[in-house]
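Bench notes, afternoon.
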Amino acid sequence: MNFEFFIAKRIIDSKAYKSSISAPIIKIGIVAIALGIIVMMIAIATGIGLQQKIREKVIAFNGHSIIQNYDNNQSEESIRPISTNQDFYPNFSSVPGVTHIQATATKSGIIRLENDFEYVVIKGVGQDYDWQYFKEFLIEGELPNYTDGLNQDILISQYLANRLKLKLKDRINTYFLREDTTKPPRSITFNIVGIYNSGLQEMDQLYVIGDINHIKRLNKWDDDQVGRFEVFIDDYDNLETTGNAIFIAVPSTLNAKTVDREYPFIFDWIKIFDNNIYAIIGIMILVAGINMITALLVLILERTQMIGVLKALGSANTSIRKIFLYNASYLILKGLFWGNLIGLTLLLLQKHFGLFPLDPQTYHVSAVPVYINIGYIIALNIGTFVLCLLMLLIPSYIISKISPVKAIRFD
């Protein structure tokens, strides 16, 4: 057995060690490591989770990349139509990474009730629409089916349902202005078949999902004309690269814009979370390291006579330093064990039960989202262990300054 490891193990197993003056300080060091890993795990899991959740919600309404006409239209309404007779539609096979493309159109309208009204944007979708995101958002009713002709069924948000006191199977009149404003608006009566809640209130308070054929009829478009194309890709990390490839692949008369450029205020805001995560990790490792340095210095002070005896018997400074570093490693690993156990338990409880809510108006989600990945957990543990151990190398150097004669006589 390794000599230094053997001595370190004997010290750890010693009852005197557990009841010594240094015991409370050692416990504080272990608690500091455990709290540090808990806070870092929560910071990473919730920071990345919040980024991903908000990102997914925005992408659900827009796709990863948006193809539309060049214009100065700043409204939510589709003005100039695009023909579906494109090389990239309905299969965008020329760009690797593209998983789906769908045609949509939007039209501004007013929902008019007996005692209330609300401005909305009808998002028209067709049979090529991918409902995977809205399956997750659906809280009541069912998703509409737009595969057979003109359909009056719509999907509204829980925000609008609460705001207008609407429920499933209600029929609502929606009015749309004509180009000639001297003429009365056109009206369509829709049936509510489903209610969704994305948690992204900025979108929920605006969008109603309906049949794209209504918008074509209102705008007097041809059957092969739509408002825009929404493109989905397989990996968000490749958004910029794939987005540039999409831009090059579409005709020069069309513009392809990635979703982060369409909503820069949202994506710039969630990027700030990275800085917060890095700051928290740095502070927690520093605090844990300082506590471990204190514990190690107390251990050295308490074992000064043992150090003197070992030196008198011929042990090298490096060998004695290893004994205390082994001891410190045990304390760090113990702190990491309890930190991981408590941290993962808290994260799993939040993931499955949503114990900690958030204000959706501020954070765009109703509960703290959690992202758990074994990769970052392992990296966090290894990084914490290595950095704390490196920080202990400097105080352990004090052992080389201890004189054997003075150490043996130390009391």
